[in-house]
Write a structure and sequence with these properties.
The chain has 265 residues and is of the alpha/beta class. The protein has 3 domains: 55 residues; 127 residues, Fusion Protein Consisting Of Minor Coat Protein, Glycine Rich Linker, Tola, And A His Tag, Chain: A, Domain 2 (2-Layer Sandwich), CATH 3.30.1150; 52 residues, no CATH class. Helices cover 27% and strands 17% of the residues. The chain has 6 helices and 8 strands. The protein is rod-shaped. The protein starts with 10 loop residues before the first helix and ends with a strand. 11% of the residues are buried.
């Protein structure tokens, strides 16, 4: 080897100057630095990926949560058609005539100079008369006042607490269907679990609109899970009072269903 080439030699060249360079050790030593550089780069990249993985996962969930949620498509189920063969309800009859009454006041002790002579009411007087605080002429075939309500408007009626499925005037959300859509869109919170799993579908909730318009007995009829069922029932229970349904001009309890669509866009 010439002296001028010594400066160009590496340590590996000097070690293997008079040896077989085709042997594996020489090749391994020659590519050692390159392999170390590549290995260090790969190890650093994997370490950085491991450290940043929680942040990347959080960004992914945030991106899914920012998807537009469309709750505007809420349709109300049509009530079943009324059976034409079903007889109409009986008309409300006016109150019957009342019997004649005779005044009867329980005796009270008074001073002698204040005594008022009243005819004593006998048992025979009460055969065709009704006792009252004043004497009035009525119908001999009439009914006793004791059978009437406090306002003397007619016979005492038993309150009807049955739940109807279809009535002449169905219940209505204040402001109509458009207002109901707006209420649901404003108050329903799309469950995060459903957003993460991209769950979409229709939840049907059944409830009763009472005579006073209050909402009660809300229950799930059809659901899609992932928290959507519970959220739909919660919002239905918290609805404001509806306009009550009517039958023959009277408020009645009516069963109602509202299907709510959960849609991710």
């Amino acid at each position: 080897m010439e002296a001028k080439d010594i400066n160009k030699l590496t340590l590996d060249d000097m070690v293997f100057e008079f040896r077989n360079k085709n042997y594996g050790s020489y090749i391994l030593r020659k590519i050692y630095d390159k392999n170390v550089t590549i290995s260090s780069g790969i190890a650093s990249a994997l370490f950085l990926l491991f450290v940043a993985s929680p942040y990347l996962l959080a960004l992914s969930k945030s991106a899914k949560a920012e998807k537009k949620i469309d709750l505007s498509e809420v349709t109300l189920e049509q009530a079943p058609p009324q059976d034409k063969n079903e007889p109409p309800p009986p008309p409300v009859e006016p109150p019957p005539p009342l019997k004649s009454t005779i005044q009867f006041t329980p005796p009270e002790p008074v001073e002698d100079n204040k005594v008022v002579e009243n005819r004593v009411v006998t048992q025979d007087d009460l055969k065709d008369l009704d006792i009252s605080n004043k004497t009035e002429t009525g119908d001999p075939n009439g009914v006793d006042r004791s059978l009437l309500d406090d306002n003397n408007k007619g016979p005492v009626e038993v309150e009807d607490n049955s739940v109807q499925t279809y009535v002449e005037q169905m219940p209505e959300f204040p402001g109509g269907e458009a207002a109901l859509n707006a209420y649901l869109a404003k108050n329903i919170n799309y469950p995060q679990m459903a957003v993460d799993n991209e769950i979409q579908g229709k939840v049907i909730v059944e409830f009763v609109v009472g005579k006073d318009g209050s909402i009660r007995d809300a229950k799930l009829v059809k659901g899609i899970g992932f928290g959507c069922n519970e959220e739909a029932v919660r919002v239905i229970k918290n609805m404001p009072k509806w306009q009550a349904g009517k039958q023959n001009g009277r408020e009645v309890n009516v069963s109602y269903r509202v299907p709510v669509k959960f849609i991710l866009k």
